[in-house]
Amino acid sequence: MILIADSSALIALAVVDKLDILEALFGEVYVPRAVYDEVSQQSKGESEKLALYCKDKVLDITSEVNLNISLGIGESEAIILYKEKSADFLLCDDKKAKKFAQTFGVNVIGSLGILLKAKENKLILEISPLIEKLRVSQ
To answer: What is the pTM of this model?
Structure first.
């Protein structure tokens, strides 16, 4: 399976130290260049961890189209890359981007959905402490 990741959910999974479960659940994980640029900025929390995790997963989109001016460039590129790669899931936590993507038939999963899937697959034992860690970090 192929998963395309957006920054918001990647950051959430980095905060709880669970980026590694993405490959275990999906096999192939990719991020568009704009998402990589966003999460690897030195001023962002978890930037070093995310830059290291994402460096071999970056793909450039072939389209120059920004899907929706109300979405960020990372979200737009993630949706476009999802379509270009015929991906199985888009990892995204942004409400507006999720809704927009779903109108184009994109299968969207958020960071909490990833944690639930990981628990179902016995990759993690408990979700509650991770959710609490996310809540405290915001």
So the answer is: 0.91
